[in-house]
Design goal:
Layout: E1 2-3, H1 5-8, H2 15-21, E2 44-52, H3 56-71, E3 78-82, E4 96-97, H4 100-105, E5 118-119, E6 122-128, E7 133-135, E8 148-149, H5 152-165, E9 169-172, E10 176-181, E11 187-192, E12 195-197, E13 203-208, E14 212-220, H6 227-235, E15 247-256, E16 266-272, E17 281-287, E18 292-300, H7 310-317, H8 321-327, E19 331-341, E20 352-353, E21 356-358, H9 374-392, H10 404-410, H11 413-420, H12 424-427, H13 432-445, H14 486-491, E22 505-507, H15 512-521, H16 525-528, E23 534-538, E24 544-548, H17 558-562, E25 566-568
Parallel strand pairs: 1-9, 2-3, 2-14, 3-9, 6-16, 14-21
Antiparallel strand pairs: 4-8, 5-8, 6-7, 10-11, 11-14, 12-13, 15-18, 15-19, 16-17, 17-18, 20-21, 22-25, 23-24
Length: 582
């Protein structure tokens, strides 16, 4: 795995070394010496396929492409670019993996040492009130027989090794910042961002232009709310005919617990307290190996109360009598958060456009009732790779349009799985109790074959009610043992950014925070962010202003979802969280 983050900052390899890493065509820059460094043409490399994002879907697609090419004795140049400093460092999930897609992709994954070591052994499903826990029948979607409790970041690193052994070029510490298009508008690759730009927007002594990675086909596997995917959806009108995507924020801690309390393979899910009944949310507890337990809480981002704080709801949840005893005497060793796509089948956009396609959670393939997306993301990457190989073999100069990718999806078990649960999340728009009753009817009686399909008409940011109509929740003060203040937990994510760079979190209208958000919603930015990025501070006129602490950002994308005035773009490659074992 090659990390170019250091060389991009001028701290490691020189541009000559970069030309050796890629087959770069360096432009003649002599005539540009008197112009701005930003006017210098970017070096470029030509590949067959560029994949943006080194998560489960992107790596699965790369592996499948190389296997298909090698099976026919063909040479295919496939490149994966990943913004994290190393594969897996930005990867966060529960996680309980269903190995179905992995087995299709790598049948001998056990012999190859895949880090799936703990089989699921027991499932519990609890309804929580403030004082009590009520066991409920475990829904079929939450039965985990045959599944594995894993660290997804470790699994992704292993998957990257399998890709490299097949000849996939995996480059980490590179942030894709721009979609390249030809005169017809077809996608022809991506450009990486310029680095060595100071926060004032001027080049520093470490300035280097980004690179153009051109390809016959570009697959976007950016994960939830990918920033290039946002632009592609708008450019090619990919949302036409689909529902708006809706999201949740998942917040997670990793604990070392008393060995006497540890039960490897045990899985517990809860609904109910502490979130109110009009909020879709719940928790997970996964017992790993080495006396480790992953605990997390998911809150749907269409919540109405601007005073609700997802991070504080998570901390409050841990104080429940049925939960806190597991962690007493333990040690929290990891923290992170990320948004997840909750819209389901109805919210999957058009998947293809000239020169490219969407795969994985950037398209929204998560199975929400299962709370699983790894196997679905990998399957989407496999399907896209199969469709891509059919087109790449044609060796045409015309832009590739993967028309058979959506067709393969609709005839696959992935479509069948998502179609069966398509109504479960929308039922909860009627509240927790109605949602549980209706989803039970759909699951147990109708078996996912209801003669109707429910739709979502709103985006998450449209759900707020004015602060004057909302009640402030009561959140406990952190005790430093079971519950923690936000910055203490943030330190466990090992988040780091180069602070001398332009902010990657920008306001489309800088007046909105103090003109709209503060007076109407009492500044919800400071509450929905699980990393302390946003805070209102005193200004020089005796009022308040929004301060953005961009270096705290853990790339969860919640702000980009919950506030349409905030635009999240990639910072310099290599920045962000450094998740370990998450």
């Amino acid at each position: 795995m090659l990390s170019l983050a250091r060389s991009f900052r001028g701290l490691g390899r020189t541009s000559t070394n970069l030309s050796q890493t890629f087959n770069l065509r360096a432009p003649n820059t002599r005539r540009f010496l008197c112009q701005s460094p930003f006017d210098t043409p970017r070096a470029q490399d030509d590949l067959d396929v560029v994949i943006v994002g080194g998560g489960p879907s992107g790596l699965a697609a790369a592996i499948k492409l190389k296997k298909l090419a090698q099976a026919e004795g063909k040479d295919l140049r496939v490149c994966v670019v990943e913004k994290a400093a190393e594969l897996g460092r930005h990867t966060l999930s529960g996680a309980c993996i269903e190995p179905r897609a992995l087995t299709e992709l790598i049948p001998d994954w056990k012999e190859k040492g895949a880090p799936l070591n703990i089989k699921a052994t027991e499932d519990q499903f609890l309804f929580l009130t403030q004082k009590y826990s009520i066991p409920l029948p475990v829904p079929g979607t939450l039965h985990n027989e045959g599944n594995y409790v894993v660290s997804l970041s470790n699994f992704v690193r292993w998957l990257g090794t399998q890709a490299e052994e097949l000849g996939v070029e995996v480059y980490t510490g590179i942030a894709a910042s721009e979609v390249l298009q030809d005169e017809s508008g077809s996608v022809i690759g991506i450009a990486t961002n310029d680095v060595g730009i100071g926060k004032d927007g001027k080049p520093t002594e470490n300035f280097q232009r980004g690179m153009e990675l051109r390809a016959r086909l570009t697959l976007f596997a950016e994960g939830c709310r990918g920033h290039l995917t946002k632009r592609l959806i708008k450019k090619f009108n990919l949302r036409e005919g689909s529902d708006p995507q809706t999201y949740g924020i998942g917040i997670k801690e990793l604990w070392e617990v008393d060995p006497k309390k540890h039960q490897p393979g045990k899985i517990v899910h809860t609904v109910g307290w502490p979130v109110p009944s009009d909020v879709y949310g719940g928790s997970f507890l996964y017992h790993f190996e080495n006396n480790q337990v992953a605990v997390g809480f998911v809150v749907a981002l269409d919540y109405k109360n601007p005073y609700l704080n997802p991070y504080q709801e998570f901390q409050k949840y841990k104080t429940h009598p049925a939960i806190r005893s597991l962690f007493e005497g333990g040690n929290c060793i990891g923290y992170g958060a990320r948004a997840i796509s909750e819209g389901g089948l109805q919210s999957i956009p058009k998947l293809i456009f000239p020169g490219g396609a969407l795969i994985g959670d950037t398209a929204g393939f998560l199975n929400v009732p299962k709370i699983k997306g790894t196997h679905t993301a990998m399957k989407s990457g496999i399907l896209a790779a199969e469709a891509a190989w059919d087109s790449l073999k044609a060796e045409t100069d015309k832009p590739i349009l993967l028309e058979n990718y959506p067709q393969k999806f609709r005839s696959s078990w992935l479509y069948e799985e998502l179609h069966e649960v398509r109504n479960i999340r929308p039922y909860f728009h009627y509240g927790l109790y109605a949602g549980m009753a209706l989803s039970g009817l759909d699951h147990y009686i109708l078996r996912g074959k209801a003669p109707w399909t429910l739709h979502t008409q709103h985006e998450d940011h449209e759900s707020y009610i004015p602060a004057s109509q909302a009640k402030k929740p009561d959140y406990p003060k952190p005790d430093g043992k079971l519950t923690f203040d936000l910055l203490t937990n943030l330190s466990r994510s090992f988040t780091n950014h180069n602070e001398d760079q332009p902010a990657h979190l920008t306001l489309k209208d800088p007046t909105v925070p103090t003109r709209v958000n503060l007076p109407l919603y009492d500044g919800p930015e400071s509450r929905f962010c699980p990393a302390g990025v946003y805070e209102y501070v005193a200004d020089e006129k005796g009022g308040q202003r929004l301060q953005i602490n961009a270096s705290n950002c853990i790339h969860c994308k919640t702000c980009d979802i919950k506030d349409p005035n905030i635009d999240w773009v990639n910072p310099e490659g290599g920045g962000g969280p450094l998740y370990q074992g998450m």
